[in-house]
Predict the 3D structure of the following.
Amino acid sequence: MSTQQERDGRTIRCLIAKVGLDGHDRGAHVIARAFRDAGFEVIYSGLHRAPDEIVQAAVQEDVDVLGISILSGAHNTLVPKIVDGLEEYGAFEDTLLLVGGIVPDEDREKLKELGVAEIFGPGTPMEETIEFVEANVPEDR
Amino acid sequence: MTSADPDGVESPSPEPTGQHAALIRDLLDGRHRALARVITKIENRAPGYREIVSQLHDHTGSASVVGVTGSPGAGKSTLVDKLAEAYRDRGETVGVIAVDPSSPYTGGAVLGDRIRMASNVGDMDVFFRSMSARGSLGGLSTATSDAVKALDAFGKDRIVVETVGAGQNEVDVVKTAETVCVLVQPGSGDDVQMLKAGILEIGDVFVVNKADMDGASRTVAELEEMLHMRENPVKNLNTGHHGPVGDDRLEAASLDDGDEAAWDPAVVETVATEGDGVTELIETFDEHREWLVDSGKLDEQARTRYAEEIRQLLRADTAALLEDVLAERGGVDALAGQVVDRETDPYAVVEDVMGPLRDCVAETDADGGEAE
């Protein structure tokens, strides 16, 4: 409750999304649980989602944070589609976009230029991710 | 549908005003982002949210609202998904609010119902929104009914409110609907026991989902029997005979009471995963709504709902006002300390706090009387 109250009655809402073909979502479950325990409201997308579906969920749920988990290496094609979709609905500006999973170093800059706030690779301590969200979540909504 | 429709011939509603005028206008213009943001403001009790809901009120009243409840795992989300799909096939737009519990310790929640909305992905005319209980006493039903108003004003034809039937809080939420649908799983004798304890009274339509499972017909029979028993409250007092003759007499008696054509709760079987029985279920919902309209119960229900809402808001505001007064007097902890030290007692404290408030109200009333 304390986390919630400190934020002036606002609860951080997150969508944890699995996009594309990879069928491995243990990491997504772990982060969903950790976010929940940090006092966030977490919506989990389920596996094998298309970028459109993720955009629909992010817009309707009006999430502060969109965490995309990708292990398949398809981030260069899928993330831009999600960014475009969010922009179409005017939701890109105030959504904190995170990517988790396996992203080669050479792709990181590209994703950040696209508007991804941070990329969390394997082994990132959970507290680090939570602190990043709390520090960077859009305030003026 | 009505006032949001640009071709509507009805008298134009007043232009939105205040700090959120643009947001309200966007919502009425059918912008999903604005609808989503308004619901967030409602959930957060953000500054100005009351003004928003207040201005939306004029645009509401055209959607039909169904509440769906039942124990975890009964298949609510899957059924709601199929309901939404069937409504969409009929050319209607749909809003869904799914309520999940939140942690009493951290306030956090995992809202998992969206996963089952597989039939409607990519279709923005199904607006699905997850809400958490946020542990607030009575606040959940207020927030939910305000979110329903936002969807209604947006122009959704059908609104479904889905909640886990776990406690009073959740029961209050589904009661914000015109038609309440309770899901039951076959072969779960314990569920039926649970129903006896209260949820049986709130259901207008009962669904035995997973009707392809063993024991489904028995569950249907048990439900039918219990619902039948419910029809005559007097009968529960009459512990003697329950023969058909007695039933007739009691029914005649209840007719004499002017209780014309009461709604007989229906039991419908579905297999939500296959979509079986969904058409019948929607027909039953429509029948119930028809009955509500024809019997005049719909208006009565709306009046009851708004009365409860007014009370709820007044209680919340009064409580907030009292918190302020308490804070001025050093806070409730300090007062409790004085009670422990036998300096005062709880009744004296309450009198001390309430006295001036009462005087104040009495004075205002007197002023109002003179002015007239």
Observations:
- The two ends of chain B are 41 Å apart (CA to CA).
